[in-house]
Design a protein that fits this description.
2 domains, single chain, Lyase 2-enoyl-coa Hydratase, Chain  A, domain 2, about 15% strand, six-stranded mixed beta sheet
């Protein structure tokens, strides 16, 4: 009997902080040829309905964050029976669903990049709101090196993170940059010793999770909407969200605590 495939994602929760660990180090946490897509989609759905979650840390087991697509698995595309139309649908129903699930996670996300983030692995880090890199981390928009394009949305993501010129350089050469270069171009917000990576990510997560859960979710949605909408439209959405925020018990607690000169308590949400 064939041994069942182990889950790709390890889900751990401590208070309002969820840590997702890509747990397939034997394939360098590749995102294809396994259950990664379905698990990311399921996790996003779970978090959307679990109001106790306020922030997510995403990292990889082993020495690699994610190698992206499984290159060995790509050999099946050589089969003439697999038509371009079928391949297109595979991307639509596969890695692109993963990208949308991570991008639209309802809560703030931190990528704790523990090693190389290659191809779709680099784009996965860009899908998160914040990125912290271990010194051993590296990043490569390397699709061109295997004769393909970023089919997971990388051409939309990377320019928004590092700017058009640097994104073009990374995409056209496919060459990797180290953690310090990633810091210099804004791909990550900080670089820390490998041994300090998770402690640093957890500290940031705790500072985020100390804030009201509903407002964190609305703030993230506004930031996402602001990337693609007119100021007038965002202002209208902001007015609606603000009306909701003013009626939360967390807002009442925050204002009362400010007036009473004490720390607010949001643990009950």
């Amino acid at each position: 009997m064939e041994k069942p495939m182990a889950p790709f994602l390890k889900y751990e929760q401590d208070g309002g902080i969820v840590t997702l660990t890509m747990n397939a180090p034997e394939v360098r946490n590749a995102l294809t040829g396994n259950s990664a897509v379905e698990e990311f989609v399921a996790v996003a759905r779970r978090i959307a309905t679990d109001e106790s979650v306020r922030v997510v840390i995403l990292t990889g087991a082993g020495t690699v964050f994610s190698s992206g697509g499984n290159v060995k698995d790509m050999r099946r595309f050589f089969d003439d029976a697999l038509t371009p139309s079928a391949i297109r649908e595979e991307y639509r129903n596969g890695i692109q669903r993963l990208a949308l699930a991570v991008y639209h996670l309802d809560v703030p996300t931190i990528a704790a990049v523990n090693g190389p983030a290659i191809g779709a692995g680099c784009d996965l880090a860009c899908l998160c709101d914040m990125r912290i890199a271990a010194r051993s981390a590296s990043f490569a928009e390397s699709f061109i090196k295997v004769g393909i394009i970023p089919g997971d949305g990388g051409a939309w993501l990377l320019p928004r993170v590092v700017g058009r010129s640097r994104a073009a350089e990374m995409s056209f050469t496919g060459e990797a940059i180290d953690a310090q270069e990633a810091l210099d171009c804004g791909l990550v917000s900080r670089v820390v010793a490998d041994a300090e990576l998770m402690a640093t990510a957890q500290d940031l997560a705790r500072r985020i999770a100390a804030n009201p859960g509903p407002t964190l979710r609305m703030t993230k949605r506004l930031l996402r909407e602001g990337e693609n909408t007119r100021l007038e439209s965002l202002l209208e959405l902001s007015a609606g969200y603000q009306a909701l925020a003013h009626k939360t018990w967390q807002h009442r607690e925050a204002v009362t605590a400010f007036i009473e000169k004490r720390k607010p308590v949001f643990d009950a949400d």
